[in-house]
Amino acid sequence: MNDRPLLVFDFDGVIVDGMAEYWWSAWHACRRLEAAPEGLTPDQVPDAFRQLRPLVHHGWEMVLLAAELPMLNLQVWLQSYGEAQASALQRRGWRPEQLQAALDDARDQAVRQNRSAWLALHRPFPGLVERLQQLEAEGVDWSVLTTKTQAFTAELLNGLGLHPWRLDGREAGAKPQVLLQLQQQRRLCGFVEDRRATLEAVRSTPGLEQLPCFLVTWGYLRPQDQSGLPSGIALLHPDRLRAPLAQWP
Ligand SMILES: [Mg+2]
Q1: Separation of 33 CA from ligand 1 center, angstroms?
Q2: Both 48 and 144 in a single domain?
Q3: How far apart are CA 223 and CA 87, in angstroms?
Q4: Ligand 1 centroid to 18 CA: how many Å?
Q5: What is the three-class DSSP state of 144?
Q6: In the predicted model, is pLDDT for residue 1 greater than 70?
Q7: 85 and 127 belong to one structural domain
Q8: Is the pLDDT of residue 110 over 80?
Q9: Which end of the chain is more exposed for a tag (fewer CB within 10 A), N or C?
Q10: Which domain does 78 fall in, by range?
């Protein structure tokens, strides 16, 4: 086994701010489904989308959100996201797989037709690229574990000049399972995420109870996500991120 510790990073909401791309791609996926949101343009992220994005777990949910945005009641969706989502899906007669396919197709076409414009919709969070590049000098390897597809993520990391030890995309499976596999090969020193529910799932997975988990404060968090964190999940603020790993909470 390689002795160097490995720090695992989520991608969206941790390394890269993809909000502009989420909206752009969701809008175009809606158009493919002949449900482009009326009165909204792909270049301007609506505030309601920004507020609801932290509730999204799978890419296809953004397509439904975009389609519903002109008519949805924001408070109802914020309070009962799962129910609102299920009822909108049923009303439209849509299946998650078809929304995911429309989203993948929209992204795929964007990459083929105007790759640089699509890449430019992703902005790294301030200081992240530099910090990741420094880790090597601290004797730490890092990898990326994301629900985005492997190919898109590889493209984006390359564009940022970032070269992780390993990249696991959506195809690799659920995050806890991938972490268990990584743990067979490397000594994991932490998992950095912006989705609290994912970290809670990781910590409750047999074999991962001891994995230090970090919830970043700059990602797509809901207001209530930062308080009352269970033990083993620490908040990671930007100033702490910049500090040497040994000083992390
Ligand atoms: Mg994320």
Answers
A1: 26
A2: no
A3: 25
A4: 10
A5: strand
A6: no
A7: no
A8: yes
A9: N
A10: 19-119
